[in-house]
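User: quick one, sequence for these tokens?
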């Protein structure tokens, strides 16, 4: 025994046998712990996936059965029953009043090695949350308010209750607003802008006055006046009435007679001598002649001559006339100091000495002009122009619609020509050609002869026809808006006019762009985080233009700024190409363009305008509301919050 106790030869075996049990516990714990964490992580990922899927499937803040099923299906695809040997698996999804989805899942994981130590299973449970949460976001609505928006949708028409298309549009915009606002982060900036468009846009009062032109040429009219006294004339001054040859009467009492017999001179015998003497010797002199109640001074110069066979009828010897130079003058009266209206010349006011629109009128009358001086207009949005009855000064008011800066006449807008300032969504004017002009409908006329358009001057005392004109509700720049403010605005929109898509998109892009005229408002948010920018472009019709409309480029048939020749097909094609150029320019500013065709065909031009996968179609009011809601959800950032 003594030797055995002090023999160290077999100590390793004893120690190894003694440590076997704790080593099994350590290894078994590691294996089962790894299995637990793997199962728990997989269950958490499945819970997250299901929560995201359920929230995305919710059209409102209410959890529907379909949305819950969608969430459960996603959970099952990621954590099927029995995976890792888990038993008693449970999972569920609910949503609170704000639409936040909460998911819970649990199960039991059986142990392996640790069962030998009394740990036969491990409970697993996870929770997850998902919500639609919007960070800094700018949303610009570009809304078609043309005449067809007053019609009923072809599907689900007015008789069934939804109302006209513009009624449906109002509801869709408000649904969009509610969806976005319910998902907005309390610290985020969410702003809205609205551009209603038809054949014009009402944006003039949003443009700084420094960027508005000081003058412009309009398709207007200029009054012409009868001659009067020279500048500085006074009552009693001599006015020349005429000076030239004319036939003289055979009696000084018959000056200004309209009777031919008073002008017959004889050519027979002594009568001929007497008549010739009277003509050449007696008639020269100065006479006072009453003309329509006005005494004129007639001076007959020497020497008149006999002209044979001047008058027809009567005896052959009594047909001669006496012809001589007569200078007629009269004294100026008070009425002569005020020019008398003669007629209008309808034209585009322009430059050039031979241009009738640059006629220099008599003293004291409104002058003709080469271009309308707009310096006084911007103080009260009105200007007095001499276009009223008989050329009187008349107040012309500006409602806010505009004419665009200079452009380039081309069929190719890719890339946009450098001098096409009207297509530059980031334009900050540096000179007069780049500035916007007020559209003054009350100062503009068409020029037609017998119903046919003419580009020549028209002289008439009458009033010519006006061009087609619609000026929509004033657009709204990017700003935070209350629900009541937005509701009041969309309720005020009225349907009228033709469809100029390029005009609406142009100003939607200008208002939301982080660069350009409104950069100071758009390029940053108070919390310093990035801004997501979106244009929602809705139209109910194909492009419709008319060269006789007064649009943002004047009256195309006469101004010819887009076409160069007033051709309607050329205008249509170029405006379609201009829309594509503007949409591309917006996307280059990292602006997402969403397009909804309402009750109309989703044309290729509209599809190409939209960002990829962002073009939609709605046949009726209910579908339009649903499309707007879906767009709002897609704009919102779906994210996990727990």
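Assistant:
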């Amino acid at each position: 025994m003594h030797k055995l106790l002090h023999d160290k030869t077999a100590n390793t075996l004893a120690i190894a046998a003694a440590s076997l049990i704790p080593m099994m516990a350590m290894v078994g714990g590691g294996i089962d712990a790894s299995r637990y964490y793997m199962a728990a992580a997989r269950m958490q990922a499945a819970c997250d996936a299901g929560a995201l899927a359920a929230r995305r499937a919710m059209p409102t803040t209410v959890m529907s059965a379909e949305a819950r099923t969608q969430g459960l299906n996603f959970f099952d695809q990621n954590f099927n029953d029995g995976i890792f040997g888990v038993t008693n698996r449970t999972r569920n999804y609910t949503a609170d009043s704000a639409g936040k989805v909460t998911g819970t899942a649990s199960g039991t994981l059986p142990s392996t090695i640790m069962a030998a130590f009394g740990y036969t299973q491990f409970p697993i449970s996870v929770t997850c949350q998902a919500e639609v949460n919007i960070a800094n976001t700018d949303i610009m609505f570009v809304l078609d308010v043309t005449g067809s928006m007053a019609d009923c949708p072809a599907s689900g028409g007015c008789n069934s209750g939804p109302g006209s298309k513009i009624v449906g549009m109002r509801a869709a915009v408000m649904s969009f607003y509610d969806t976005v606002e319910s998902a907005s982060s309390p610290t985020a900036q969410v702003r809205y802008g609205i551009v209603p468009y038809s054949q014009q846009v009402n944006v003039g009062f949003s443009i700084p006055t420094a960027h508005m032109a000081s003058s412009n040429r309009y398709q207007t009219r200029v009054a012409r006046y009868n001659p009067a006294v020279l500048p500085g004339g006074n009552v009693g001054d001599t006015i020349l009435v005429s000076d030239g040859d004319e036939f003289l009467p055979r009696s000084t009492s018959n000056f200004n007679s309209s009777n031919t017999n008073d002008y017959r001179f004889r050519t027979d015998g002594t009568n001929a001598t007497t008549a010739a003497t009277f003509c050449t010797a007696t008639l020269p002199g100065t006479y006072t002649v009453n003309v329509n109640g006005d005494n004129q001074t007639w001076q007959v110069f020497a020497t008149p001559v006999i002209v044979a066979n001047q008058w027809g009828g009567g005896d052959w010897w009594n047909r001669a006339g006496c012809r001589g130079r007569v200078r007629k003058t009269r004294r100026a009266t008070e009425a002569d100091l005020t020019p008398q209206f003669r007629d209008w010349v309808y034209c585009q006011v322009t430059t050039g000495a031979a241009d009738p629109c640059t006629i220099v009128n008599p003293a004291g009358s409104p002058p003709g002009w080469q271009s309308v001086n707009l310096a006084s207009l911007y103080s009260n949005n009105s200007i007095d122009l001499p276009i009223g009855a008989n050329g009187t000064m008349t107040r012309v008011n500006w409602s806010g619609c505009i004419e665009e800066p200079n452009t380039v006449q081309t069929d190719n807008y890719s890339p946009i020509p450098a001098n096409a300032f009207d297509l530059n969504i980031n334009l900050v004017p540096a000179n007069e050609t780049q500035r916007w002009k007020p559209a003054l409908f009350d100062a503009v006329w068409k020029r037609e002869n017998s119903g046919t358009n003419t580009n020549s001057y028209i002289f008439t005392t009458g009033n010519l026809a006006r061009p087609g004109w619609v000026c929509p509700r004033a657009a709204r720049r990017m700003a935070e808006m209350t629900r009541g403010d937005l509701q009041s605005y969309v309720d005020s929109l009225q349907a009228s006019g033709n469809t100029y898509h390029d005009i609406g998109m142009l100003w939607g892009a200008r208002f939301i762009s982080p660069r350009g005229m409104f950069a100071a408002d758009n390029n940053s948010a108070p919390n310093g985080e990035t801004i997501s920018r979106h244009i929602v472009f809705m139209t109910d019709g194909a492009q419709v233009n008319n060269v006789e409309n007064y649009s943002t480029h004047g009256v195309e048939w006469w101004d010819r700024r887009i076409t160069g020749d007033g051709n309607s097909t050329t205008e249509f094609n170029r405006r379609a190409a201009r829309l594509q150029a503007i949409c591309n320019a917006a996307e280059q500013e990292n602006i997402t363009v969403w397009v909804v065709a309402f009750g109309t065909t989703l044309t290729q031009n509209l599809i190409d305008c939209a960002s990829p996968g962002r073009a939609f179609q709605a046949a009726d009011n209910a579908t339009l509301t649903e499309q707007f809601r879906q767009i709002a959800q897609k704009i919102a950032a779906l994210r996990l919050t727990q």
